[in-house]
Amino acid sequence: MDVNPQEVKQVASQILAGMLANPHIYPKVSDEGGQGQQEQELIVVAVEMAKKLLEKIEQTN
Question: 0.85 cut: is pTM over it?
């Protein structure tokens, strides 16, 4: 399956926004601002979730 990188970016940004808006999933913003290890891990998780979501959508069509 070919996943459009633009779609992944869009979905990942929406997932990441939801994750960051929910403070229960992370203890606090790191001292490094948005570039800390914790924030980078959230970005990676959001991208992986977006890819899997788009793959599932493709499989059902």
Answer: no
